[in-house]
Each structure stands twice: as C-alpha cells, then as structure tokens.
Prior knowledge:
The chain has helices at 15-62, 251-260, 262-280, 290-313, 318-340, 343-366, 371-428, 438-467, 474-508, 518-531; strands at 78-95, 98-114, 121-126, 133-143, 146-148, 154-155, 159-164, 172-183, 185-188, 195-206, 222-224, 227-233, 241-244, 534-535, 542-543, 557-561, 568-572, 584-586, 593-595.
Amino acid sequence: MNNCVKKSDKKAFTLIELMIVFAIISIIAVILIPAFLKARENAKRQRGEKTGQVTADESLRKNPELPYRIKPEGKLPFFSSESMKIALSVKPHRIGMDVYNRFEADFNGQFLLKGIKNEPVRLDFRFPQGTTEARDVSLKFITETGAEEPEQVIYDREGIFWAGILPEDKEIKAEISFIALGRNTFEYVLPPSQRANIVEIELTMKETPAYIIPDWALQPTAVTGSIISWKFNNLVTDRDITVVFPEALSPIGRVVLMCKLVGVAVLFFGLGFWYLCALYRPEGLIKFRFPHFLLLALTYSLFFIIFGVLGFRGDLSTVTATGISAALSLPLLTLHVSRIIDIKFALTRNLVFSIFTLALVINGVYGGDYRDYIFIGAVFIVIAFLTLTFRLWLSNREKWFKMVDEELMKKLEDLGQTVTNSMEMFHKSEKCFNQCNSDERKELTDCRKNLIERCREYKGLVEQHYSLTSGTDRSDAEYIRSSLGGKIVFLKERIVLYKTDLQMFLDRYPCEEESKTPDVIEESKKVTIAEGKIHCPLCGYGADYSPFCPNCGTIRPKVIVCEKCNDTVHIPLHVVNRELFKGEIYCIKCGAKEKLD
C-alpha cells in the first residue's frame, strides 16, 4: 500500500520576506562581484609589479653602474625666479569595473639660478605624485650658444635630476618640459631650493570636470576662469600644489553604477507591485508565489541587462540606449503581469509604476544638477499617494484576508466531507477482517492505521483555521494562510488514496449493512432527545451544541430523523448561515418540513 510522508510543520518565508531576501541577495551580488573582480586585478597587478621589481633589482645587481638608480648629490640651488606653466586636462578611464579620472599635465618651466663657489648644485624637478607615465621629458640650459642638454642628467621614474658646477658670477636659465600622466589627484611638489625669490605658477584647466583645492594644499592667489595662478615672493612653505577631482563617471562608469543599483530597483519595484496588487487587485495575490515574483524580477531586470550591453558597447547615445531597452523589456513585463493579474492592471498600474521606478534609477545616474530636486519630487509623490490610498489599502487587504479565509473554509468543508465518508468506510472495513487471510489482514490493518492518522491531522487544520478569527498575530495569520491551503490539498490526496485502498477490500469482501427499522430509528431519536447531546461520529464523545467536537475537534453534524419517512438527515452546523436560517429544514428524501432547534 502507499505510505504517506508527513509534511513538515516548520515555518516558511512569506511572500514579502522572500522579496526582501531576493533583493538583499541581489544587492550583495552587485557589491561582491565588482569587488571580486577588482581584487583579482589588484592581485594580478601586484604580481606584475613584483615581477618587474625583481627583474630591475637583478639588473641592478649585475650592473651597479646603471645611472637611473643613482641620485646625484649636491647643494640646493638659489632660484632668482621660478616660472611655470601647466596645462591640465582630465578624462575618465576605465580599469575593469572601476572608472578613474586620468589626468594629463603638460609642464613648461623656466628657472633662473646661480652657482655656488666650488660646490656642486643639485637640481631636483620631480613629477607629480602618482604619475604613472611621463614622456617628452627634457632639461636644457640656455646659454649664449643656445639651448643644450647638460651632461649626466638623469631622467628617472620619479623626475629629472642633475648635479654639477655652475658659474657663480652669472645667472643660468634652466628650462624643463615634460608631459605627466596620472589619475584622480594632481599633486605637484615645488622644486627644493635654498631660496626662491619669485614664484609664478599658472595652471590652465583644459577639458576638466569640477575640481577641489583642499585646505591643506598651497592656496592660489587668483582664479580667473579656467586659469589658476600662484604668485609669491620669497616663498617658504611645505605645502604642495594639489587639485582633487571628484570621482567622475564616464558613460561606461554610469552604466556600471546603474547595474549596481539593480538590487535596490528590484526591491522598490517588488514592494510597489505588492502594494498596488493589495490596493487594486487583492484577489490576484491569493495564488501569487515566489516563482512568480522571481520571474517578475528577472523580467524587470531585463531593462538593465539590455542597457548595460548597449552602454558597454558605446555605439549608441544614452537616450537611444534607454529607449531601446524600454521598448524591448517593458512589453514583456506587461505581458507577464497580465498573465499573473490581468491586462488592465498591467497597463494602467504596473506599466506606469515600472516607468516611474526606472526613471528614478536613471535620474540617480544621469540626473546631474537636477538629481536632488527630482528625488524630492518623487518622494513627495510617493508619500502623497500612500496618504491618499492607505485606508483603501487596509480595507482591501481585510477583504483579501476574508476571501482567503472563505476559500480555505470551502476546502476544509470539502475535506471534512471526505473525512466523514472515509470514517464510514473505516467502520465498514472492520467486517472484512473475518474474511481476509493473514497477509491481507496485515495490509488492511496498515491501511486503516494510516487513514486514521490522516483523519486526526484534519483536527489540527481545523484548529489552525479557527485561530485565524480568534485574534492570532498578523504574521502568524499570514503564515497560516500561506501554508494551510497546501496542507489541505496534500491531506485530501492522502485520505482519498487510503480510502481507495479500503474500497478495494470492501469490493473484494462485500458485507451486508443492517437496515434500520422504524423502531430502532424512533428509539435512537428518543435517546438523542433525552440526552440533549450530540455524539461525535469519530470518537463518540457526547456534548451540547458546538460546531466542533470538544474532545477531538472533528466537525460534527446534527442528526435529525424525519417523522414522515424515518430517514436520517445529517446537518453540518458549521456551514449553516444563521442569518438566512429560519429554524426549518426539509427532508432530502420526502421533502417533509422539520424544525431545527
């Protein structure tokens, strides 16, 4: 015979909890995946740098005379004047999943300096800190014969270095030029000197986003349009020229940011979808399960997937990519919602809300100077909508709970009828024991045992349903509603299965039923009236009127004997509508009228 596997009584997640869990997993994924890729790239870069450093150290060990590893020594110079012009441009640059501001600084400087008697002078022109590459590097002395590059000048990764004897009686002009490339922060250290009489630095910002000169940097004396100037006499300072560029997003960077916001967008969309359904279509949530929400979230995320692919390709503008993504994803989302709820809700409610949420995400990435104002307006709209519809939402939510409870009640009534029929068959099958052999008797015993266990489980389901209307906590009530329907279906399948097995024995070993004589019926009626009690058909416990047996919880009928035809009528009291009931019933066999107290 078939055995029943007992269903677990552990609590499962409710729909809203599953939505939150899915959104949290999405947020964690979009955070961890870029971090993992970044860690891999950093590890790869560190391995490359370590390998390059080992190679350089090995070359230095074999060739200790390499000049670029030797810093010249000498005294610091006296600068009569420092004049420097810097043209700075910044462009976004993507490395893996991260976007940086990459600057390019074109330096051109002139320095007037004098030598020190019988002492070498050391010139130290360093590149901006964080420079990853420098090109067109040059140091020249301007003499009467022209511009010449001095001997033993060192062009190192850190900058330009030279040391030598300069004439003491006249000034020498030194010109430097180079193009330095770095990222995020431009920080330039002034050439060290014993004294700098005149310092003039002009920084021209070309193709640069918004910038910040921090308080701890050397502050400019004038800012005219895109030109920043520093002019000092006899400057004594330990501060550097620093310009910080806030992390700007390139088109690719904006796409990456939008992809990172998918988890938040799905959570917001899921909560809004649930609220709108409870507000306008509460009946649509009765059969809404987590797989429906999972497919709904994936369909909604299709917009970001298409936009991400088009954005990374870079062949289309942002507006065009947004239009194509919406044209391909929103119809599928509308079709999916129409299958879950209905087409009217999908077009008038869900489509509008989907466009609203997508517009908020796009504004968060591309909103620019108006981003904050748009967010404030969106918050105002959401709060106003919730304020106007909250009472209606509560009312519809209670209606929804009532519909669910009524549907569960119908299922319980159907299951109760199945239990009653099964118990009748259970008692009839007792007479089959005398006609069965030992093997069949064991099989019949197991079947009867399984059936009675399943029928006892029915008591627990009745108690759970009764608790829905007896002040149960809201979260527990939602769990009961979400799990009770499945338990009822499962239990009914098991009971019908065992009932079918018992029917096989009854068909194989038929037994004649004892017909009730009018005298027996009348005697039963007198006993019932005399006792004033109703006996449970399952456990036999007698008690006053109640829809359920106080002993075992089984739904109990009221037994009425027709005075005209002596037929027995079973009235399920728990399904009688007391408002419509007038105290009279009719015999289902002869139609005679009987009074029901």
